[in-house]
Amino acid sequence: MNNIKDVAEGLITKFGTKVGLSEDEKSLVVAAEDIIDVLQEIKENTDYTFLEDVTAVDYPECFTAVYHLLSLQDGQILRVKANLDKENPQIESAVSVWNSANVMERETYDLMGIIFTDHPDLKRVLCPDDFEGHPLRKDFKVEAAPRQ
Amino acid sequence: MVLANQEGNFRTQEFILNMGPQHPSTHGVYRAVLTMDGEYVVDAENVVGYLHRGMEKIAESRTYTQFIPYTDRMDYLAAMLNNWGYVLTLEEALNLEIPERAEYIRVIVGELQRIASHLVMVASFGLDMNAYTAWMYAFYDREKILDLFEMICGSRLTTSFMRVGGVPNDIPEGFLPKLEEFLQRMPKRIKEFDDVLTGNEIFLARTKNVAPISGEEALDYGLTGPNLRASGVNFDLRKVKPYSIYDRFEFDVALGENGDNFDRYNVRMEEIRQSLRIIRQAIDQLPEGDIMAKVPKVLKIPAGETYGHIEGAKGILGFYLVSDGGTKPYRMHLRSPSFINLGIFPKMARGTILQDAIASLASIDIVLGEVDR
User: Fold this and answer.
1) First-to-last C-alpha distance (Å) of chain B
2) Is the confidence metric ipTM above 0.90 for this complex?
3) A57 vs B331: CB contact, 8 Å cut-off?
4) Rounded to an integer, what distance in angstroms lies between the CA atom of residue B172 and that of residue A50?
């Protein structure tokens, strides 16, 4: 079971309409509240067992958390996405499934301001602790630092 | 720390040791906050970000071509491979075929870069255990690779050599004889590294069974590249899902058994040998022809998402590109192997003595330009 459509079909029978294919049929779109159940299911019952990357995108209508899962058998990538509320972007942390999510989620929190609930140590990683705002958000404007 | 109280009884106390960010053994501006019990590390915390330049944000205000020089400055010890990963992602998004000769030139410089990067790891890993000779030896050979890069693109570190659609310059006159000289010399040099490190009793005593990582742990912590293979997991993108023309070369995937510091070193030594094999085959097969595909002057990527990844020198180097159809990326995310590999360092350091923790840090081969981006 490796083709993205087969994976999607398997998940749809289990989770119903909360899981679906994106319009371009290249990613799985999952309801944010089910993300951990779905990731766990994919890790246990498909070839996509390795978490390669976690990040997020700031779209005009929502934030989207993006997970790239890797199959160690054939090197294929499965993209899983979850749309988050624009005002209060929250999603459960995947650290319970993969330890590697720890650093990647911290980075996503730091730069994009996504709150990963139940994360063991959610704090800034690349920006200084007293930094204000989340630089990768579209409303964060880059400007020259004031002259000292 | 041992303290005497008023009755004269001794008690011990843990203390915090700050290592870095300005320290030779941290390989750049990396800082570790270590909780120590005497010589032993009880806990470690990574503190990074001193070199954060906001590359993902910068990408959003640059055209696709303008971003190529920025990729040099991620893993600045393997600029060619960063260039490659980036242009490969764009070519995938554009569905672009590139000329055969360009693919071969990419393989040759890419594998040379992998050797150069691994030589730095071998050198600094040795140096962190006071093996100064190894440092001088390995840097001598890396210098020869940088000379070759200077011939081909005028730059030694920040190469910016690859373009969307191919490579900008063909191999210059005199390059192949020089490369031949390098390929002839390297096997003898590797034997010398083996003499000063691989067979060195002190080196073995310091590295064998230090900070072992099982295959399962390595996967759980998201390790990729030589660090993952050192733990015995047979996964190399060049083999499993050959990009470019890697399906045309014969080479073996170097594997470790225990995932200890020695295996992480040894896997890289073996990968240097395999890269030499690949370069030899690439020279033999090198075809004549164009080096650039026809590409419009102003690049527009069709709206949509692309994820491209290659087997970089430090692990899987990924580029996640979201395009809205314009001339600049809507969002560009860089999956940096060093940043994720570093996540396992606290676990490796716990329970070992400080000197071994420093060797463990060197063994996972991080580059701070890539960690912080």
Assistant:
1) 38
2) no
3) yes
4) 42
Dump pLDDT digits (tens) for B76-107: 899 999 999 999 999 999 888 899 999 999 99
CB B261 within 8 A of CB B359: yes
Portion of chain A with pLDDT greater than 90, in percent: 29
Asked whether the bond before A60 is cis by omega within 30 degrees of 0, the reply is: no
Count other Cβ atoms within 10 Å, centred on residue B170.
17
What is the DSSP secondary structure assignment for residue A79, as one 8-state letter?
E
Query: Chain A contact for B57, CB < 8 A?
Result: yes
B233:A72 CB<8 A = yes
Nearest CB to B241 within list A24, A52, A75? A75
Which of A58, A66, A70 lies closest to B320 in CB terms?
A66
Residue with tokens 């704090």: A123
The answer to which of A26-35, A100-109, B280-289 has the lowest mean pLDDT is A26-35
Element (H, E) at A13: helix A4-15
A74-99: pLDDT as tens digits: 888 889 999 998 888 999 999 999 99
Question: Which residues on chain B are in Cβ contact (under 8 Å) with A55?
Answer: 320, 333, 335
A104 touches chain B (CB under 8 A): yes
Separation between Cα atoms, residue B16 and residue B47, nearest integer Å:
14
The tokens describing B78, both together, are: 């393997």
Q: Are the beta carbons of A27 and B305 separated by less than 8 Å?
A: yes
Mind listing the pLDDT tens digit for each residue in A31-78? 888 889 888 888 888 888 999 999 999 999 899 999 999 998 888 888
Give the C-alpha separation, B286 to B179, whole Å.
Answer: 14
A136 touches chain B (CB under 8 A): yes
